[in-house]
Amino acid sequence: MSISRRVFLSASVTGAGVLVLAACSDPTPAPSSTRTPAPTATPTATGAPGVKPSAFRRSSWGTDPYAFGSGSVLTDASTDTDRRRIASPLDDKLFFAGEAVAATYPGTLAGARESGLDAARQVAGIASAGERIAVIGAGMAGATAARDLADRGFDVVVVEARHRVGGRIASYESDQWPIDAQLGVATLSGQGAQELEAVLTAGGVTTVPFSASPAARSGAKATPFPATSAVEAALAQASRWADTRSAEYSVDAAVTGSRAGSKLSATADGSGVSNADRLAFLLDEVLPARFGLDPDALSARVLAEASAPGDSQLVTKGFAAYVATLLEDLDVLRGSNVTQIDYGNQGVGLRLVTGESLSADRVISTIPLGVLKQKKIVFEPELPVAKLDAMDRLGVGVQDVLWLRFDQRLWSTDATVWAILDDSATYRLWLNLEPSTGFPILVALIGGDDAIAAEKLSDGDAVAQAMSDVAAYLDVVPATASPTPSATPAP
Question: Does the reported pTM lie above 0.85?
Fold first, then answer.
């Protein structure tokens, strides 16, 4: 199935969450009152000199000690069988949940929620009334499982390594931001999103439609950057080629082996962009931003995923609060990092980094795959070799975001997805949230090796680099200078 460039761009809006949701969602119209009229523009071809954002937020999921990555992803060495192997319970005592092991919609927030419900049903099917169930992790999967089991009458305790709940739902509210800055999951779209959106809306989460309209910076002006049938055909060709092979292949290998890009023109069309440019940008920037891996490691199976809609719902308020509501009236041990899990006929014992221990009849682990891959948590008895091998094969992507808020709109284009074709830039994929929210907010998306490298930058250097990269789009002279930006540390 062909994957349009518009689909890839819109799907990548999720940033660090890995959690690109893939099926239709019915967006509701944005309130007309949310749109702030753009200021009278004074165009300039060189960008607004000396402009700084008023506030910024930045994620660093690759180095986050409680995640070590944004989420799971198939590599050229793994298949969905590996997810099932990791998910299989051990001795009816130790159960696994989370986006990495989801039976449906794996690698997504919808999948994380469903996996929590699945694990809770498994436990409830064999546990006796009054048993104590420990849930490791207070993200979407853990909070969902804990709530379901508590509602069934079990004695539930939640053990969370962070001092906050939500996991990779990192939603922050402050006076500096008119909407919550999402450092993890930011949008709802794709398979499983309809049901999830209804659940979140009922739980007080608010969203606005985000309509994807791509543009590219070519020379001194922004030009439309639409999908073309030639690029779609090239991606479909690479997908078919990989499907006919018995072995697993990376995206790069599939594109090369199928010669999918050999017929794409390198001559710029009416938009100022060539089809070769489009394909290169997709492979080098959009795929890593969406999945967290570069195309030389990312499974070619992603090319055959069902096409996601071009538009999505952008979460504006209440995301982290929703998870906190699920955990209301439950025993939640924050700041309690698990270092050892003993499971067997006598139940389960958890040892914490503080030296304390906790006993339960059964446990559901939602420990992120990135943390499990570190192999610093001791399991007694050791995990089966087949499960460990599956963990090694399945990939963990790194997707980061950099949110910038301005006091006024500094760009004249209404395009919502911005491409920067200069491959010397660090932040080359941007979202313009102003048309959806009415607020002058830009979000830079970065993934794969580029994200890992960018995480080494200081906050000041990252913001300066981002402003340099996006400067060509900032063609409105500001009325007044912006104050020095400030930020609250990322999770």
Answer: yes
